[in-house]
């Protein structure tokens, strides 16, 4: 793990670049992470996915899968790929301040 400054805060990240503690997350961190991975600015669709992911994680203790987001949040797969291109599950989790999704290589 390593600490680094992002959005004016010093937070811990794991070796793969995910936030070590989801409680350290806030919207300014989400916006900074989105910019780092090239999906900024965050739009309404992004926030719908992010807010669902964080709420689902708080309820289940697990990072939601792509399928769960499409079914439970009602966001079509095509739209998720447009919002979070080239590896949407990882990018959704990263920007949501959650750990790496289970099953991701």
Rg: 13 Å
The chain-level mean pLDDT equals 95
Structural class: mainly alpha
Low-confidence stretches: none
Proportion of beta-strand residues: 5-15%
Q: What strand order characterises the main sheet?
A: 1-2
Helical content class: 40-55%
What general form does the structure show? globular
Total count of strands:
2
Order of secondary-structure elements: EEHHHHH
Major sheet characteristics: 2 strands, antiparallel
Q: How many helical stretches? A: 5
Give the N-to-C terminal Cα separation: 19 Å
Description:
A hairpin with a 2-residue loop joins strand 1 (2-6) and strand 2 (9-13). It is globular and about 35 Å long. The longest helix has 17 residues, at 44-60. It has a two-stranded antiparallel ribbon with strand order 1-2. The protein has helices spanning 27-36, 44-60, 66-72, 77-83, 88-95; strands spanning 2-6, 9-13. The chain has 105 residues and is mainly alpha-helical. Helix content is 47%, strand content 10%.
């Amino acid at each position: 793990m390593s600490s680094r400054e992002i959005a004016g805060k010093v937070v811990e990240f794991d070796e793969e670049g995910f936030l070590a503690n989801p409680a350290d997350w806030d919207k300014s961190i989400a916006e900074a992470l989105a910019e780092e991975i090239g999906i900024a600015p965050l739009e309404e669709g992004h926030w719908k996915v992010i807010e669902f992911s964080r709420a689902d994680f708080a309820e289940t203790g697990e990072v939601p899968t792509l399928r769960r987001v499409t079914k439970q949040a009602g966001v079509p797969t095509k739209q998720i790929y447009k919002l979070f291109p080239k590896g949407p599950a990882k990018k959704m989790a990263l920007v949501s301040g959650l750990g790496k999704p289970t099953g991701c290589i």
